[in-house]
Amino acid sequence: MLSVLRRVDRLGLTLSLASTLTLVLLPLVNLQPNRILPGQGVALSQLWQQNSFLLFLPLFLLALLSATFSRRLWPRAMMSAAALLLLIIALGNSTTLLLEDQPPFARVSLGSGFWTLLLLLGLLMTDALIKLQIAPLPRLALVAIYLSAIFTLLASGLWDQISLMLEYHNQERFWQQGGRHLLLVAGSILPALLIGVPLGIRCHRSPRVRAAILPVLSLLQTIPSLAMFGLLMIPLSLLATSFPLLSEFGIRGIGAAPALLALFLYSLLPIVSNTAAGFDGLDPAVLQAAKGMGMNQRQRLWQVELPLALPVMLSGLRIVLTMNIGLVAVAGLIGGGGYGTYIFQGLGQTATDLVLLGTLPTILLAFIAAMAIDTLIALTQRETR
Amino acid sequence: MIELNNLTRSFGDHKAVDNLNLKVETGEICALIGTSGCGKSTTLKMINRLIEPSSGTVLIDGEDIRNQPPEQLRRKIGYAIQGVGLFPHRSVYENIATVPRLLGWSSEKIDARVHELLELLKMDFDSFAHRKPNRLSGGEQQRIGVARALAANPDLMLMDEPFGALDPLTRERLQLELKQIQKLLGITIILVTHDIEEAIRLADRIAVMDGGRLLQQATPEELLRNPREGFVSNLVGGEERALRLLSLRSIGDLMEPAECFELNATTPSIEASATLRDALARQIWQQSPVLRVTGENGDTCGAISMERLLSLGQRPG
């Protein structure tokens, strides 16, 4: 008995207990009378006899058991991943039955039980994936394969009866908004890189420049995003009214211009400070050797300093990318476009699933961006090690 | 020949190097020795213009080094430092190829040179060339550091405490290898060190510095026999000088004829190429007042007695 207890994985046990409680107590889906009114929770007790749940439940149990008692990581990762996929399938299949004798505007939306399970199973997978210590590129590939499996399920129409997907089908411009979201992120980060990296190098070389620049950038960082948008609206709309030509190019008080400018300003601090930190951390012996062998300043910069400072600089880029993907959503409020548009429309209409249609892709984009940069950092660090 | 003429470098009011004059002959190893902060590294860096002198000149083969841009000058001078400073993101091969690439050598020429250098440093090309520096031991890294400094066939190599961070055994082995390589290539080396043993072991000429000034320059033997009072004589060590003197000479030069002693089969032997210090150590260890001296082929070519060693290590005068 003791030996069994000793073999118990504490994190696995905690997550398993939490998952079980969630599955039993919280509603997996809600049955709403229409798009806006809150509905009634539907728990597992009303769903479990359905065929698709008969497939999900045993696998779910297996996943929890292996998370708790097994030290073998691959089964843990695979089974929790498979359990989540089966849950998605089971919920999709059950919607038709749930809606069978409901009025035409009734909807099935995802309940708190589903979101909590998504989180808990996600934690189990991440934990196993981290402990497996897979090389960076295969890890990225695994995540990509898993995400595309989920997307294939969604694209197959399995969830088309679920409120979130109904909202998706109502939005013709969903993918364009995604493109615009990314465009705003790139449009603010690229100029920030072009200006921030040289500025960071200047900060590294001159303590006076550093003392002048970094506090200003830190101050900018403390301005809340909505306040920043507001602050920028005034000068930009003044500019636009005094020079009508500018507004032809989209420089107006609302819309993309203040959003881009604000995001650009926010991006500067992480890029500048991480560039400076990356250069500060270079081994003086390496720099002295480079100089003593006759490399000129440009050769030292491109062949030695930049490649060696790159991992730290990339971790600055990671901060900026995830931060800006989130902030672009806020820019939806001032008409900047992107997924934030859905969030604010949804809030206005009290349509929770429209809010989710804006939130989920934003989170997913930030997650993918962070993963991609992590992979790059791991690859560049392996280069230098 | 390298000539440092009235070389001075001030940092603010502080004179790091004060009116230094030094000549280093071609093909010599010259050790600049002193405590930290004595100006030896500053002096070295003025030779490849990492630091510009406040006044005075440096001539290499009669030509003022200021006549050419610093980068061009440095590419002609080998440079090896403490901490090595290998580029961690580049392989051993690429590290060695650094200066040849800066000089625009063809890839065939570079390839041949890297092979040649690794062979010279007794490192197997296939197992080392494509490793990253972090996969090497400290001694291997320093070897690659030397190979990199030698890559473009410099006539002069500057070394700033190159072996400072190594364990004593590795250090001694690398010092011997460096000496062999230097004799083989006939290059001039100026070496900064704070280790008098290292200076004695390697250098043809030792320049002792303190407080930015050159106190004495002499051959190791002269320095040990007649050190100037004060700093220099402290540096070369009071009583230990005897052992250091013995370590300067090889047995072959001073051995006695074998016939003067009754050597038998149990008499311990020592190679003629070993130093007198090694001989004394072996005599004490083996409790044998006489050693048989053997040549390269193992034949007895002489003998050396403790009596003779004692007289050779005596205080001069």
UniProtKB/TrEMBL annotation, chain A:
Localization (cell): Cell membrane
Domain ABC transmembrane type-1: 178-373
Main location: membrane
GO biological process: glycine betaine transport; transmembrane transport
Domain of life: Bacteria
Membrane-spanning segments: 47-69, 81-99, 105-125, 137-159, 179-201, 213-237, 249-269, 354-379
Keywords, in A-Z order: Membrane, Transmembrane, Transmembrane helix, Transport
Family listed: Belongs to the binding-protein-dependent transport system permease family.
Name used for this protein in its record: Osmoprotectant transport system permease protein
Species whose genome carries this gene: Marinobacterium mangrovicola
From TrEMBL, chain B:
InterPro entries the record matches: AAA+_ATPase (IPR003593), ABC_transporter-like_ATP-bd (IPR003439), ABC_transporter-like_CS (IPR017871), P-loop_NTPase (IPR027417)
Annotated GO MF terms: ATP binding; ATP hydrolysis activity
Cytoplasm recorded as keyword: no
Key words of the record: ATP-binding, Nucleotide-binding, Transport
Record has tRNA processing as a keyword: no
ABC transporter domain sequence ranges: 2-236
Coiled-coil ranges per UniProt: none
Pfam name, any one: ABC_tran
Record GO biological process: quaternary ammonium group transport
Similarity comment: Belongs to the ABC transporter superfamily.
The protein's name in its UniProt record: Osmoprotectant transport system ATP-binding protein
